[in-house]
Amino acid sequence: MPSSLLQFPPLSTCQPNFWILLVMLLSGTVGGVLNYLGARGEEPKNASFWQSLLGGMVASFIVLLFLNMISSNPIDAVKGMVNAAGDLSKLFVLAGFCLVAGGSSWAFITTLSARVLRETKATRHEVQQMTSYTAENLISRGTEMALFGDGGRRELEKKAKEDGRLPPGQSLTLKWPVLHYGGVPHFDAAKWDFKISGLVVEPVRLTWEEFRALPQTEVTSDFHCVTRWSRLDNRWKGVLFTDVMKLIKPKPGAEFALVLAEEGYTANVPLADLLRPDVLFTFEHDGEPLAAQHGGPLRLIVPHLYAWKSVKWVRRFMLLDHDRLGFWERNGYHAYGDPWKEQRYSGTSRSEAKNLRARDASESYSLSTRRLQLLTRLIAPMKSLNWTR
Question: What distance in Å separates the CA atoms of residue 92 and residue 47, rounded to the nearest whole number?
Answer without folding.
Answer: 28
